Amino acid sequence: MEEGYKIVENYSHRQLDQFPQNLCVTQDSRGIIYVGNLGALNIYDGVSWRRVRVPNRVVCSLAVDNNDTVLVGGKNQLGYLEAVENGHLEYRSLLEKLPKDYREFGNIWKTYATIDGIYFQSTKYLFRWKNGEMTVHKPRGKKFNIAFAIGNILYTRQHGIGLLARNLSEPSS
Questions:
Q1: Do the Cβ atoms of 53 and 37 come closer than 8 Å?
Q2: Over the stretch 36-88, which tens digit does the pLDDT of each residue have?
Q3: Are the beta carbons of 96 and 150 closer than 8 angstroms?
Q4: Which candidate, 68, 26, 33, places its Cα nearest to that of 49?
Q5: Of 51, 104, 42, nearest to 78 (Cα)?
Q6: I need a labelling partner for 160 at 20 to 30 A (CA). Which of 48, 104, 126, 143 fits?
């Protein structure tokens, strides 16, 4: 009997000198893997791991848009990765795009790249980044329980209200 290739490769948090809890993972069109952790954002290119520091260290959600831009949601942080001159990626915060009253929002639990912009969801607010502008949406109920995007529909479940849907292909009001 011939041995085949490994299907799964395991990496211990001890090997990577990381916290043992990963909160999210995504992959870009080149096959690069991005893992959000309680200590940093880890990037695996198939050969080696690299670490990108994010303010507050916690990465709760990740998404990749059509341009292969990696979007990052963390603890009181939202932003993206940008290539610098040496080819490495660095985190760029979008926090300064928010009004000062909205900068304490807790964790960004979900991040979605949609046809209507990038959505970052915390329990307090739903932020939309589009054409260099940040829009803040407050829940109709007490808080956003969760958000998710399926096709051109963005769903939000709100405490005390229920499930709400927004067609992203229709003009915003």
A1: no
A2: 998 889 999 988 899 999 999 999 999 999 999 999 999 999 999 999 988 88
A3: no
A4: 33
A5: 104
A6: 104
